[in-house]
Every structure is written in structure tokens, then in C-alpha cells.
From TrEMBL:
GO terms for molecular function: ATP binding; ATP hydrolysis activity. Residues 3-112 form the ABC transporter domain. This is ABC transporter domain-containing protein. Keywords: Transport. Belongs to the ABC transporter superfamily. The keyword Transport applies. The keyword Repeat does not apply.
């Protein structure tokens, strides 16, 4: 639908300009938005998706039964999709993407609109798809926790250009280690005392984080707690997550955001939208 203007690219070793048919036969795509026929049953929808990809009817039907069981819809496969919950529709879309057993699975916001239980099942299924299916999953998501659950590498695009393409664990090493302190009573006093001692404090309710500057940091924190007359309930080294990595990258790019929630539209957060 869109012609190449410049550059070149390959997928699984195939040239996107001349070998598109071969590429499409080996990738599965799960779109963010509803792409199902509400009048069809799940078994017919997935079988039809397989036939569109060139599978013969018998093979497509057999695979439809297999993948619907795989995504947790075995007992509901004969129901019309219009009766499905949001989580079941997402699972049906995943089944359509897997019916031809692709080498690469592309998922656009796979947990969009899901409740906690359905979200956990979707992420678990995607992890299984990687670990048991010997295939790669390329997932687009605004939810950093979801990305960290499934992926081991991230690619961040800013203003149309790739600005980061690394393993998550490698990026985490670039963040300065912090000490996380949970206090009981007087968190504001504790923050003020730490700041008066030269610490830069990040506060999340009763939890405070400070950079681990050297081996004496822990002693200084305890001295600050005594001076502020607060009780330290827990103190541990904080392991940065993907949200921390995201914030650091955006800071280096000169973009002010408080978190990934700043980038979400109403449809990602479940709110009203036009």
C-alpha cells in the first residue's frame, strides 16, 4: 500500500521491496484495534484468516482448533465473536496471527483494554510463544511493565528516528544505583534532612530513593533518619526498571515527561475519546 521512497530493509533475510509475499507468509500480525467479523464464530474467523494466508481449508481448520486452544478459547471457539469480552477478542486476534505458525509475531498494544487477569494471561501466552515456539515477538506498547514482561530488547523511536536499540539489561547498567528507603512517619522530614546533607531525593509516598554515591551512603541515611526522628522500615538497593530507563532516555532527549502515562491517549487508559 505504501511504496518505498528510499533506503532498504530485510525481514528474515528477504528484501521488502521484491519479496513481500515470502515475508508476509512468515510473519503474523495482531493489530491494536478490532479487526474481527462480529458475525463469525472464532473457529470460522481463525480458519478464514488461515485461508487468506494461503492455507488449504482442511489445514486451516485444524490449525484454527489448535491455536484457539493455545490462546485459551477452546471452550468458546464456536461462539460468535460479538458475544466475546474484550479479553476474548484480543485472544482471538492473537489466534489469527498465529494460525500459520509464523517465525515473527508483531503485536500492536496486545494488552489494550484488558483487565488485570486477562492482561496477565496475554503476557504469559506471549512469553510462551517466544520460549516454546522458537519465534520472535515484536511488541509495540506504551506500558513499560508489559514490555519488560515479554521482551529482552527495546527499540525506541523519537521523531521518526531510532534513538535506542539495546538489550534492557544493558540499558539498566547505565542508570546510577539508588538506595530505596521505606519510612514510617515523617517522610517529608526525612526528605528535607537528606536534601540538607546533599542528597538528591526521589519520593514516592513513604518511599524515598537516593543515589548510592559511595560506601558511606547507608551510614548517612541512618544518621539522617535519627536527625529527622523517623523509623526506617526497610532499606535496599533499588533495581531500575524499564520505566526508569525510559525517563532517563527522554531526559537526555530534552523531553519532559513524568512517566509513560504522559504518552497515553484516552483509548490506552480506558477513558473516553472521540
Amino acid at each position: 500500500l505504501i511504496t518505498t521512497t528510499s533506503g532498504e530493509a530485510t525481514v528474515l533475510g528477504y528484501d521488502i521491496r521484491t519479496e513481500g509475499d515470502k515475508i508476509r507468509s512468515r510473519i503474523g500480525y495482531m493489530p491494536e484495534y478490532d479487526a474481527l467479523d462480529p458475525g463469525l464464530s472464532a473457529i470460522d474467523q481463525v480458519r478464514y484468516a488461515g485461508e487468506l494466508l494461503g492455507m488449504n481449508p482442511a489445514h486451516a481448520t485444524r490449525r484454527a482448533h489448535e491455536v484457539l486452544q493455545y490462546v485459551g478459547l477452546k471452550d468458546q471457539r464456536y461462539r460468535k465473536i460479538e458475544t466475546y469480552s474484550t479479553g476474548m477478542k484480543q485472544a482471538a486476534k492473537l489466534a489469527c496471527a498465529l494460525v500459520h505458525d509464523p517465525d515473527v509475531l508483531i503485536c500492536d498494544e496486545p494488552t489494550n483494554g484488558l483487565d488485570q487477569r486477562a492482561r496477565e494471561f496475554m503476557l504469559q501466552t506471549l512469553r510462551r510463544t517466544v520460549s516454546e515456539g522458537n519465534r520472535s515477538v515484536l511488541m509495540s506498547s506504551h506500558v513499560m511493565d508489559d514490555v519488560q514482561e515479554v521482551c529482552d530488547r527495546i527499540v525506541m523511536i523519537h521523531k521518526g528516528r531510532i534513538v535506542v536499540q539495546r538489550r534492557i539489561e544493558d540499558l539498566a547498567r547505565q542508570i546510577e544505583r539508588e538506595i530505596e528507603i521505606s519510612v514510617w512517619g515523617g517522610a517529608s522530614r526525612m526528605q528535607q534532612e537528606l536534601e540538607s546533607r546533599g542528597f538528591e531525593v526521589r519520593r514516592l509516598g513513604r518511599v524515598l530513593r537516593v543515589d548510592r554515591a559511595n560506601d558511606s551512603t547507608t551510614r548517612e541515611i541512618l544518621k539522617a533518619a535519627v536527625a529527622a526522628d523517623v523509623q526506617v522500615r526497610q532499606m535496599q538497593e533499588y533495581e531500575p526498571d524499564l520505566e526508569d530507563i525510559f525517563l532517563l532516555i527522554m531526559e537526555r532527549l530534552g523531553t519532559e515527561v513524568k512517566g509513560t502515562s504522559d504518552l497515553m491517549t484516552a483509548e490506552h487508559t480506558g477513558g473516553d475519546h472521540d
